[in-house]
Structures are given as C-alpha cells and as structure tokens.
Design goal:
Length: 275
C-alpha cells in the first residue's frame, strides 16, 4: 500500500523530474501506475522504490525511463480535434502557401507527441494540401516525448483501428496499408517525421528546437501545475520564429500563463501567434 509519506516523496520526485503533478486525490492512480515497477525490482514498499530512484546510481538512471513510461498518459488519435486542424490548414494556406513563408523550409514541432498520430496527421494534411493546390512546399516535422515506449511505437508507425477511427476512408486507404487488422503507415508520410526523446521539464533541451514555424503542444499541459505550464509556454515562445503559431489542447488555455502570445480565433478553436 502507498502510505501518505511515500506518496508525498514520490509525488515531489516525479514533479521535479517531469513536471507531472499528482494531486492528493490521485494517490490511487499513482499506486496503480507504479505497482509494476515495484514488482519488477522486487521491492515490497513504495518507500524502497523511492530510495532506489533517488540513490540507486547507474541502475536508477535506466529505471527513470521506465518511470516516465509508467507515469505518463498517452491517449491520442489521428485527426484529433478537427477545428484545430482546420485552423492549421488556414494558417498554412495564408502564411506558407500564399504568404511570405512560401518557398522557405517550414519547421513543425509536435511536442509531447505520444505514439505519433498528431505528427503524422500534420504530414498527411500538408501532403493533401500540396496535391490539391498543385504546389510543393518543403517541410520537416520533429516529434518529441518523454516516454521511450511511445517513441518506439511511433517510429514503427503501426496503428490499431481505435487510433485511425477518425480518418476519412479515402485518406486512410491512400496513406495506410491494412494488414492483419492493423494499419501500417506508408513511407511517404513516415519519412517526414523525426522522433526524439525530449523532456519539457529540461530547460536546456529546448535549444534543439529553435526556429520553429509551428508548435503543437496539445493535451500535456493538463498534467502540469501552473509554474511548470508557464515554464513550458515561455520556452515555446522562444522556440518560435516570427510569425510562429502555437496550438495547445482544446481544454487548455494560456489565460494567466502568458500575455506574449496573440490569440487568433478560428471557428471552434483558438490558436496562438507569436508577434
Ligand atoms: C495525452 S498525450 C498527448 C498526445 C498528443 N499531443 C495529442 O494531443 O493527441 C500526452 C503526452 O505527453 C507526454 N509527456 C508528459 N510529460 C512530459 C514531459 N515532461 N515532457 C515531454 N512529454 C511529456 C506523455 O508521455 C504523453 O505521451
């Protein structure tokens, strides 16, 4: 059983390493997330596990990655929240197909990408726009996450029916090969995305993701407290070019977190612009 003392030790440790904050009413959730970690190492108490994480030297370094896998929630799907994707299309059309950005190398970052559906959706949208508009633009997408397990799965790009449920059938047939009940993404989409480990808590790591045109950072801020949210948003601001566009989760808001971004209102959604 997870005692109150061990809960607090682990909660503070997890927060310090990931920014993920388990509120007091999430004790049971933490207990169920970590129970496998304890049994894998043969610990009988959560306190033992905590001391191992904190003082276990080299061994605890690799355990840290399993801890990240265990404490993260990785729910995602293709074409999640269509109004946000329609807004993305409008921005692409205005700034990068027709506007000043046309002819430049477009750089997109899917931060907290989970198993890759978000990043691959953006690629499919761009490929489709290019075909319809009979125009080529040059773009790269980098997708990052703190969980090695989801990154491994993202690179494989093989998806179950739940993940592809919102994809228009014509698009699905065009970009996936269905085989034995799973959907394998074609290379024409896969080749545009590079997956990297990146912890949004690590201020130094943002240096690798500068000069972005577009950042999608959806459905991850909800796991952070306000201090961490603010840190992430300030860092994202620095990572964007001018003009640069930030999309956060549908249920998330920059209210009280940043005044630097300009809200752009689209049907059913708000996107944020730098400058
Ligand atoms: C619910 S998923 C969101 C996936 C996708 N962005 C979407 O909206 O469909 C949240 C992701 O955030 C990642 N995450 C949580 N804390 C993180 C951190 N400190 N740094 C980077 N990624 C983190 C999790 O591993 C998880 O894959």
């Amino acid at each position: 059983m997870l005692t109150k003392e061990s809960f607090i030790l682990l909660r503070d440790f997890i927060y310090e390493k990931t920014g993920i904050f388990f509120a007091e009413n999430k004790t049971y959730l933490m207990e169920s997330r970590l129970t496998n970690r304890l049994s894998e190492h043969g610990f009988s108490t959560y306190e033992d596990y905590y001391y191992f994480l904190k003082y276990g030297g080299e061994k605890s370094k690799s355990e840290m990655l399993s801890l990240f896998d265990a404490v993260t929630t990785n729910e995602t799907s293709f074409f999640r929240n269509p109004p946000q994707l329609d807004a993305f299309k409008m921005i692409m059309q205005k700034h990068y197909f027709d506007g000043k950005g046309a002819g430049t190398q477009l750089r997109i970052w899917s931060a907290a990408s989970s198993t890759g559906e978000e990043a691959y959706t953006l690629v499919i949208i761009l490929l489709d726009m290019m075909e319809k508009l009979k125009r080529n633009i040059s773009f790269t997408v980098v997708a990052t996450d703190i969980s090695p397990k989801v990154l491994e799965s993202a690179r494989k790009a093989v998806f179950g029916s739940y993940s592809v449920r919102n994809i228009d059938e014509a698009i699905r047939k065009k970009y996936f090969v269905e085989e034995g009940g799973v959907f394998k993404l074609k290379d024409i989409v896969k080749k545009h995305v590079k997956f990297d480990f990146m912890n949004l808590m690590d201020a130094n790591a943002y240096r690798m993701y500068r000069q972005m045109d577009v950042i999608f950072c959806r459905n991850v801020l909800i796991y952070f407290d306000d201090k961490m949210k603010k840190k992430v948003i300030d860092n994202m601001y620095e990572c964007l070019k001018l003009p640069g566009f930030l999309t956060i989760g549908h249920a998330e808001s920059l209210h009280n977190l940043s005044r630097a971004f300009k809200p752009l209102v689209f049907p059913g959604t708000t996107t944020y612009q730098k400058g």
